[in-house]
Every structure is written in structure tokens, then in C-alpha cells.
Amino acid sequence: MLESVLKTIYVIWYRELIRFFREKSQWAGMIMQPTLYLTFVGTGIASAMTFRQAPGGTPVDYMTFIYPGIIGMSVLFTSMFSGISIIWDREFGFLKEILVAPVPRWAISVGKALGIGTIVSFQGTILLILSPFAGLSLTLWTALKVLPICALVGFAIGLLGISIAGRMESMQGFQLISNFLTMPMFFLSGAMFPLHSAPQWLQVLMVIDPLTYGVDALRNAIYAGIPEAQAILQHSIAYDLSIVGLFSIVTAATGVTAFNRQG
To answer: Residues near 244 by Cβ (< 8 Å), separated by ≥ 6?
Structure first.
């Protein structure tokens, strides 16, 4: 039984990677979107302002602040919208074939989410290569810390996208709900502005947003050991990852129920 479950997870994971590498347009979008944000949003605002992360704190360059947030944004958009593959699989009959297989439904959702997590790790690698454009010089050790975080956040949000797609009857419905969720999740994550500068009611929403902890974990990994950057960190990396891990458990449960509805 365990062998069949692991084989199912592997096959679904591998299929997600094959699908991704065959679609060149995804590669272009995956590279261009964060590059444009870094170039026009990050550079443009950074040239006009330097802010303090907290009252009396050390001045922080805006590009230093926003760079991990751009990685988080890319992981969010890629992993959430990858859930649309569920709808494609349903329309072309592949989903029905794998649902009748004598394996647990959760293995299917986990396999897909692991594929998404692997894909966003590739995306994270590209963004780390672009770090000099943000004025940063990152080490191999930094990359080894950042990429697993990208994979974990992508896995969790990928499960959320799978859960939504499993309940949608059309791609239009999925895109509508996904857009409704991704934009608030991005802007409330602290990727573009620090939590302390927001109004109190907005801070409450930012604390609830799971991506807040993913972005903060990326900042912890990228700026560990850099004293002047410590002011932009909200929590310890262990706390951030525990929240993201808890979120992945919740989204895994909702993803399984979405697959059960297909039966």
C-alpha cells in the first residue's frame, strides 16, 4: 500500500514538472513578472525614498525591504494559479482516470502540490540569480536556505489553489476566485510596506495572512547575520515556518475534501 501511494505521488509530481517544462510561456511569465516589479516598482520607489522600519530604527533601503517580497509574490502567483491544472485534467478526462485508482485521494493532491513546490524552487533560483539587480550579493548558503522556504510556501499555497480548483466548474470561476484571494494576500503580506506603518485594522489582516510569514521567513534567510537589516524582520524563522507548516496542513485537508467531491 505504501509503495503504491509513494508511486502515485511521484508520478503526479513528475507529470507536473513535465507539463511545466513543456510550456515555454510559463517560463517567460515566471521571469518577466518579478523582473518588472524589481526594475520599475522597486527601483522607482527606492530612488525616491528611504524609510525606517520602526520609530527610531536604522534607515533601510527600500530595495532591501522589497526584494524578499518580490520572491514571495512570485511564489504566490505561480503556486496559486497552478491549481488550474485540476480543471484541465477534469476536462480532458485525466482526473477521472486517477480518481478511480486504488490509492488515497490525498496522495493525488500531495503529488500535485509537491510538483508546484518544486517549480517555485526553480523560480526562486532565477530570482536569486537576479539579486545583483537589487544591489545584493547572496551566497550559496543563502540560496540553500531560501529555496526550501520557497518550496514550502509553494506547497502550502499550491494546496490552496488545488482546493479551490477542485470546487470550480470552469476556468473562469477559478480565475475569479484566485484573483480575489491573491491580490489581498500579496498586499497584506508586508511585501510592499512594513506592518508597523499600516493602520491597526490593516495590521490585523496582515497578521492573519499566511503569506506574511512566508515573506518574513525569506527575509530571515536572506538577511541573516546582517545587523542593519534585522530591523525589517518581524519574527524568528522558526516561528514563520511553523505558521506556514500549519497553513499547509489546513490546505491539505481542504484539498483532500475537494478531491472527494469529484468521486
So the answer is: 152, 153, 156, 210, 213, 214, 217
Side-chain half-sphere CA neighbours of 81 within 13 A: 17
Number of residues that make up the chain? 263
Question: 70: which residues sit within 8 A by CB, 6+ positions away?
Answer: 34, 37, 38, 42, 127, 191
How far apart, in Å, are the Cα atoms of 2 and each of 11, 14, 59, 145?
A: 14, 18, 54, 30
Q: CB neighbours (10 Å) of residue 15? A: 17
**Which residues make Cβ contacts (< 8 Å) with residue 62, sequence separation at least 6?**
42, 45, 46, 49, 50, 51
| Closest C-alpha to 55, from 196, 242, 216, 249 | 196
pLDDT (tens digit, 9 = 90+) per residue, 115-171?
A: 999 999 988 888 888 888 777 778 888 889 999 999 999 999 999 988 888 788 777
pTM of the model: 0.87
Per-residue cell: 101: 485508482
